[in-house]
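Notes from the 1:1 (GR / supervisor)

We went over the backlog. Supervisor wanted to see one worked example end to end before approving the batch request, so GR pasted a single chain during the call. The sequence is below; no edits were made to it. Supervisor asked that the structure be written out right there so they could see what the output format looks like.
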Amino acid sequence: MKSGSRFVAVASAPIGADRFSISRKVLAVGIVARQGEVEGVLSSHLAVNGTDSSSSILNMVSKSRFAEQIKFVVSNGIAMAGLNVIDYRMLFRKSLPLVVVTRSIPRPSKLAYALRSFSAKSGVNVRDRIEIIRSFASNKPIKIGGFYFQSQMDKESLVRIASDAVKALRLAHLVASGVTTSESKGRI
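Structure output shown during the call:
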């Protein structure tokens, strides 16, 4: 991946107290950036604990003026809007590799446990989501500058984009939470 590649960093708004909801939608914000510069802001809505994160990201990107230029997607974890797992394979088929950035080392077993608990309370089948998580876990996390990066991209590419990816992801998080709750808080 070239250092000047354009990408989109996506974050969802806080889901609130009703963590087992399956009927609400929350705002998702995409920050289009390249070489430390913000070039655009995209938005969509995601079902809380749903399965539409990948299709929403693809739709957000494909309808934008940056569609042909965006080379990868950055997110804070493999799930957005609660337990709405991003199907990295769907993104990859559209030539948009997923880069997951986290502060602590990814623990796919904890996310799988949360999904099973959600399934027990809601009756929603989560087998496909757990399979996506297990499959993505084969991409070993790499620690760069205090963050863990996990992707199908090679280490050299991840090192090149790390700083810009974190900045854009931070901005996406601030915008999504600030617009929704009238003030941003927390950190990626």
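Supervisor's comment: The chain has five helices and nine strands.
Batch request approved.
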